Automatic annotation (TrEMBL), chain A:
Family statement: Belongs to the leucine-binding protein family.
Lineage per the UniProt record: Bacteria, Bacillati, Actinomycetota, Actinomycetes, Pseudonocardiales
Any Pfam family matching the protein: Peripla_BP_6
Annotated signal peptide: 1-18
Domain of life: Bacteria
Protein name per its UniProtKB record: Leucine-binding protein domain-containing protein
Record-annotated Leucine-binding protein domain positions: 57-337
Species of origin: Pseudonocardia xishanensis
Keyword annotations from UniProtKB, A to Z: Signal
Membrane-spanning parts: none
Automatic annotation (TrEMBL), chain B:
Subcellular localization, as worded in the UniProt entry: Cell membrane
SUPFAM superfamilies associated with the record: P-loop containing nucleoside triphosphate hydrolases
Name of the protein in question: Branched-chain amino acid ABC transporter permease/ATP-binding protein
SMART domains: AAA
Bilayer topology term: Multi-pass membrane protein
InterPro entries assigned to the protein according to its UniProt record, in alphabetical order: AAA+_ATPase (IPR003593), ABC_AA/LPS_Transport (IPR051120), ABC_transp_permease (IPR001851), ABC_transporter-like_ATP-bd (IPR003439), BCA_ABC_TP_C (IPR032823), LivM-like (IPR043428), P-loop_NTPase (IPR027417)
CDD domains reported for this sequence: ABC_Mj1267_LivG_branched (cd03219), TM_PBP1_LivH_like (cd06582), TM_PBP1_LivM_like (cd06581)
């Protein structure tokens, strides 16, 4: 046991850990880290890590890097574990990285205070936690949870269902979804008539479905874990009186879509904050697809990777615009001034210069572009209409 | 009408619980085990069914059979490979083994079906809506319920009227007797494991079209099913049917009528807890099984080892190990602190609590709230730890009634309720934003885990060491011996005046404080405290698992066990060795390691290593020609002075007109007796005459229907057993009921030590040096127990153990000593010595003795007076000579002839 510990630690000690200098001179590498939740059992965002690694290794560095310096990227995978997330932040601080790219992590509240204290900017693909929306170093590329659930309710109303229900799990953080859904329903001229909280892993959704219907809901926004999403959607389809359903793309992995019945798919629409990987008319997505197929022939071209590619593009474009040393502060300043950020993956006119809402709890929401998708029989998602900025759906 | 709709929907959900619970009951009946892996085993069969039917086109009936066969084989395999080798391990170890199997199977399914984590299963039953009682509900739910009722009826009939049922009942009631009749417990258990697992497969296959298939079902479905089986006492299929159905209905109705988030999950547990508490007894009944627990360490904390080790650890933290390892230390030690709370509650006191992580969460919540209000960190920490005490007292009170797995379910219900009502309440815990606590500061030192991980890790290290020292003091002190006595044998502890209630309340309180402290340190590593899914009931189960792996009775156990937690040093080692593979691989490998560890070291890894080290040290000492056991007993402080016995306080026991009823049977009807100082009164009668019941009634172990028990003027019949003992009644038991986990010395100490409540506090700081008092030393000499003092009862002959049992009772200095068949199982010469001993206790020590005994010669020789019982009634009383001549006694008890008995 002790020998194993010593061996393990000696191996680790020989890695590049230790105090870092975030403003090393020209010719050195510049360190950037990515925080991501890859390899989690159910919510696997590892394609985002692959995409950003490909961006750096196969695209950015061969083209000369940033300011003539090669970028040294480290992907820190928290595997949805809060303790590992905090360790990622410590590594970022001690290794002296100049910026952090975020894929998807539910643990923003765990790692953002650490990198905020060090002033390291964090450009995040899918904001989920409250710190993602409030930390001064956070630069979310899309509206994330806040906009998606508001948008999901609004879209149901716009499709002719004014009385919206919401299904959530009874965890503290889900309660905010009720506010988001209500905001969206109200903004679109409808109303949220019922919120039902089901325990995680509820085996039979019939009572929850009946409760929503009894409360007058004619359509439902689903904000639960994937297992309950699948169960509820399939029960709705099987009930004999299926109702329209809506959910956020970020909360519905491909495995969950695969488990839906054809009838359930027909009732479902998804709302997100970026283009799907199928849209090759977007330059960044085409670049991503080309390079990924060369470097990782077996890797699927899919949405998370495409979105993360756009995030990397935004950060490195901002870094390229820095005059002088590539310090965290200089990069943060460049991000705040850089407008538009140069990626169309997230729709037109993405800027970090002005928040899209005055609500202090969501003050770092810059992009209110909403993407609405339908799900095909093959479980692929297709954009229903061009994205449009909808700041009225954000909390005010 | 809505109520009817939700009732019918609830019936469908309840049927799912019943189906799973039925399998749990089958396995428990066959092997006495609660199988947490039950649903996981069933899921393996259900996935097989789905794969064959829907991916490979196998006919449905064949796929169903294949799925059932896979689960049955898996169940039998788990029994033969894991549970059978663990048959002599403590029930807790066996339970943890099933948890490990569950985790391993779950991970294996995640890996096997990585692309099909969520599976929709095409229904086998018609799903169309049907109209019942004027409301429309899905037809498949009602069909599943109907099938469930039929299956339950079938199981009930099979286990009531077939040979399999009778044999299983025989095995579950008395393993040895069944084996003596030629029934192989292993075969029966294997058969029941296979049948139960087949039932799990059938249940999950039936459930799958409703719930979908996902490995996560293994945990989400097992908890309500377990609650159902507990209410059914793991025995009754009809009660399981009623309970599971009722749970489903309650959940369904709550969803509609009381739409408070989380309440539908919590209410069933509250109902179950109330049922369990209502039918539990405040004191363990005679014949109730006494479980074997894992071994307990000495609690020895030697400064010459602890200080250097702590200093070396600090040096490593500050100058040697990489920063991410330091962070891992800062995560692990708070977890170890929570696991340490399990050592106190479960290891030392034998209370299986599945709510320790909930206590940690309560501590974190209170500290965070106080910090938001502006309280300094130190104040918040102390108050947070103290805040758990009221709830701990409530749990301790519950623990005084519910025992074993019942208590586990009650505490699990508490964890579910606390999570639903507090942690998941956004108003209390800040919801999406969480609670902003910033960087904790203590005495001007910033303890930021992110900015200054070494400082934070050092702080957690010092807190853990401090708490471990305190818990070590507890183990070595008077309070610790009380806890161990209660753990070992609650009835015997009560007979010695040790309050089980007090011990349990104390253990839960101290455990709650430790857990809360760990919870605060765990969460304050982050400036924003969010509760999300951080304090789930499953984490509490995990804490018990980690405690058992490390060694649930050992101070160092938590350090080792907590390495299994994510983000700790254990994770770093795994990463360093295996990189960062899919977590499911780590879980699978971890589960296999856990099972192997349990098989190799059922008492935990720390005791195993301790034994190995000790054996090595003994070999070394032998090399130098000195036997480790050569040291004289006196050198170990065994015997003190040689003063003789002092007389006990003289009190007279007056028992008047006792009546005890068990249901419709009157066990005792009106006997009265008096036992004065220095007097030996015999109590004889045929088996079933009510002798032991009289002792139980006098000492408070059964409630009286009528009558009074007085010690001089003091009314004892209104007091509990422990208070009667403290008033001056001492008793021994037919079945000895020694504290098998304690040495003979500790048995005697636990009897003779003062019962002051302050010991529960003072012990934590000053355990004191255990020394036998003059009375106990005299008892040791009287009973010639000196050579056996450092042995455990299991190492002694039966006759010696009888003496220890009496000596332990005597050591408590009772004014009146009640001996229950002390000569049972010993030979004539030993019985003769025993008689002399009893006489000396009366003549020299001044004790009044009430002697229940079948050895008539012994009774006639030592007793001053004798009372004879028949069918609960007094038929004669008088001197031995009068009794010997009493015609009715001769006819009913001493022998068929009415001639006087020759002795």
């Amino acid at each position: 046991m002790i020998a194993a510990l010593a061996l393990a630690m000696s191996g680790c000690a020989s890695s590049s850990l230790g105090g870092g200098d975030a403003s090393s001179g020209p010719g050195d590498t510049v360190k950037v880290m990515m925080f991501n939740s890859g390899q989690a059992a159910t919510l696997d965002w590892s394609p985002a890590g692959t995409a950003v690694s490909t961006y750096v290794d196969a695209y950015l560095n061969p083209a000369g890097g940033v300011h003539g310096r090669q970028v040294e990227l480290t992907v820190c995978d928290d595997q949805l574990d809060p303790n590992k997330a905090a360790a990622c932040a410590q590594r970022a601080v001690t290794e002296g990285v100049v910026a952090v790219i975020g894929g998807m992590s539910i643990n923003g509240n765990r790692f953002l205070p650490g990198i905020e204290a060090a002033g390291i900017p964090y450009v995040v693909t899918l904001p989920l936690s409250s710190a993602d929306y409030t930390s001064p170093v956070s630069f979310p590329m899309q509206g994330g949870t806040v906009l998606n659930y508001s948008g999901a309710a609004a879209e149901l109303v716009r499709k002719g269902c004014p009385d919206v229900g919401l299904l959530v799990n009874p965890i503290a953080t889900s309660a905010a979804l009720e506010d988001f859904a209500r905001k969206g329903a109200d903004a679109a001229g409808g109303r949220l008539v019922s919120t039902v909280a089901v325990p995680v892993g509820t085996t039979d959704m019939s009572a929850a479905f009946a409760k929503l219907k009894a409360d007058g809901a004619d359509c439902v926004v689903i904000g639960t874990v994937e297992q309950d999403f699948v169960n509820f959607a399939n029960y709705s389809a099987q009930s004999g009186s299926p109702i329209p359903l809506s959910a956020s793309t970020g909360g519905v992995p491909p495995q969950a879509l695969k488990a839906l019945s054809a009838e359930a798919v027909g009732q479902l629409e998804l709302v997100g904050g970026s283009y799907g990987a199928g849209d090759r008319s977007i330059a960044e997505i085409q670049q991503y697809a080309d390079l990924l197929s060369k470097t990782h022939p077996d890797a699927p071209i899919e949405d998370k990777g495409a979105a993360a590619w756009g995030t990397a593009a935004a950060l490195f474009a901002a870094m390229a615009s820095v005059e002088g040393d590539l310090t965290p502060a200089a990069i943060a300043t460049a991000l705040a001034r850089h407008c538009p950020v140069g990626t169309e993956v997230y729709g037109p006119d993405v800027c970090f210069d002005a928040p899209a809402t005055s609500n202090p709890s969501y003050r770092r929401t810059f992009n209110a572009n909403l993407f609405v998708y339908e799900v095909g029989e093959d479980r692929s998602i297709t954009l229903v209409a061009p994205p449009a900025a909808q700041p009225e759906l954000l909390p005010t | 009408m809505d109520a009817v709709t939700f009732l019918l929907l609830g019936v469908g959900a309840g049927a799912l619980y019943v189906l799973v619970a039925a399998g749990l009951i089958l396995i428990h009946r066959g092997s006495g085990l609660i199988n947490f892996a039950h649903v996981a085993i069933g899921l393996c069969g259900a996935y097989t069914y789905w794969e064959l039917r829907e991916l490979r086109g196998v006919p449905t009936w064949l796929a169903v059979l294949a799925g059932i066969a896979v689960s049955a084989g898996l169940g039998a395999g788990v029994h033969l490979l894991v549970m059978r080798p663990l048959r002599n391990a403590s029930p807790l170890t066996r339970l943890i083994a099933t948890l490990a199997v569950m985790a391993g199977l779950q991970a294996a399914m995640q890996l096997r079906y990585a692309d099909s984590i969520y599976v929709r299963v095409e229904p086998m039953l018609p799903t169309g809506a049907v109209s019942v009682l004027g409301v429309t509900v899905p037809g498949d739910r009602l069909l599943v319920f109907g099938i469930t009722v039929l299956l339950i009826a079938l199981l009930w009939a099979v286990y009531r009227w077939t040979a399999l049922g009778r044999i299983t009942a025989a095995v579950s009631e008395n393993l040895r007797a069944a084996a003596a009749l030629g029934l192989s417990p292993d075969v029966i258990a294997s058969l029941n494991w296979a049948l139960g697992s087949a039932m799990a497969a059938l249940a999950t296959i039936l459930i799958a079209p409703i719930s979908g298939l996902t490995p996560a079902l293994a945990t989400s479905l097992i908890i309500p099913a377990l609650a159902t089986a507990v209410v059914a006492r793991f025995a009754s299929f009809p009660i399981a049917l009623a309970t599971g159905t009722l749970l489903g209905i309650i959940q369904s109705e709550v969803t509609y009528f009381v739409p408070v988030p989380g309440l539908d999950a919590a209410i069933p547990f509250v109902v179950v807890a109330v049922v369990l508490l209502a039918r539990s007894k405040p004191i363990a009944a005679r014949g109730e099984p006494v479980f074997r627990f894992a071994s307990v360490g000495t609690g020895g904390v030697r400064a010459r080892y602890v200080l250097p080790v702590t200093l070396v650890a600090l040096l490593l933290i500050w100058g040697v190990v990489p920063i991410d390892w330091v962070s891992a230390v800062g995560v692990q030690l708070p977890v170890a602190l929570i696991v340490l709370s399990v050592v106190v509650v479960t290891g030392y006191t034998g209370q299986l609590s599945l709510a320790q992580f909930a206590f940690a969460g309560i501590g974190a919540f209170v500290a965070a709230r106080l910090t938001v209000l502006g309280a300094p960190f130190g104040v918040a920490l102390v108050l947070a730890c103290a805040s758990t005490i009221p709830l701990s007292i409530v749990v301790g009170l519950a623990g005084a009634r519910a025992r074993g797995v019942n208590l586990a379910i009650v505490t699990l219900g508490l964890a579910v309720t606390v999570e639903a009502m507090i942690f998941n309440n956004p108003v209390l815990t800040g919801g999406f934003d969480g609670l902003q606590v910033g960087t904790p500061t203590l005495f001007g030192i910033a303890l930021g885990a992110i900015a200054t991980p070494a400082v934070y890790a050092s702080f957690t290290l010092l807190v853990f060491v401090g708490c471990a020292v305190v818990v070590g003091n507890l183990r070595r002190g008077r309070a610790g011996r009380r806890l161990l006595a209660v753990r070992s044998n609650e009835r015997a502890a009560a007979a010695l005046g040790i309050s089980g209630l007090g011990a349990k309340v104390y253990a839960f309180s101290l455990g709650g404080v430790l857990a809360a402290c760990g919870g605060v340190l765990l969460t304050f590593a982050n400036p924003i405290v969010t509760f999300g899914d951080a304090f789930t009931p499953l984490r509490s189960i995990q804490m018990v698992q980690e405690a058992v792996v490390g060694g649930v009775g050992w101070l160092v156990g938590p350090l080792l066990g907590s390495t299994l937690d994510p983000g700790t040093v254990g994770s770093k080692i795994m990463e360093a060795v295996a990189g960062s593979p899919n977590p499911a691989w780590l879980t699978l490998v971890g589960a296999v390691i856990l099972v192997v560890a349990l098989l190799q070291a059922p008492d935990g890894l720390v005791p195993l290593n301790t034994h190995l080290l000790r054996a090595g040290w003994d070999r070394v000492t032998r090399l130098f020609g000195r036997s480790p056991s050569d040291r004289p007993l006196a050198a170990r402080g065994v015997l003190g002075g040689d003063e003789g016995p002092s007389r006990v306080a003289p009190h007279t026991l007056h028992v008047t007109d006792l009546k005890v009823r068990f249901g419709g049977t009157i066990a005792l009807d009106g006997p009265s007796l008096t036992v004065g100082p220095g007097e030996v009164v015999g109590l004889i009668g045929a088996n079933g005459a009510g002798k032991t019941t009289l002792l139980d009634g006098v000492t408070g172990f059964v409630p009286l229907d009528r009558g009074s028990v007085l010690l001089d003027g003091l009314e004892l019949h209104t007091l509990g057993p422990a208070r009667r003992a403290r008033a001056g009644l001492g008793r021994s038991f037919q079945s000895l009921e020694l504290f098998d986990d304690l040495t003979v010395r500790e048995n005697l100490l636990s009897a003779s030590e003062r019962r002051d409540p302050w010991a529960y506090l003072t012990t934590l700081l000053r355990p004191g040096v255990p020394a036998l008092n003059a009375m106990t030393r005299a008892a040791v000499q009287e009973f010639d127990l000196g050579p056996d003092l450092d042995r455990r009862p299991g190492e002694l002959s039966y006759a010696r153990r009888r003496l220890v049992a009496i000596a332990r009772t005597v050591a408590a200095r009772p004014s009146v000593l009640l001996l229950d068949e002390p000569a049972a199982g010993i030979d004539a010469a030993e019985a003769h010595e025993l008689g002399e001993l009893i006489r000396r206790l009366a003549d020299v020590w001044g004790m009044g003795v009430l002697l229940v005994e079948h050895d008539v010669e012994l009774v006639m020789r030592v007793c001053d007076r004798i009372l004879v019982l028949e069918n609960g009634r007094e038929i004669a009383t008088g001197t031995p000579e009068q009794i010997r001549m009493d015609a009715r006694v001769i006819e009913s008890y001493l022998g068929g002839s009415t001639s006087p008995v020759e002795v």
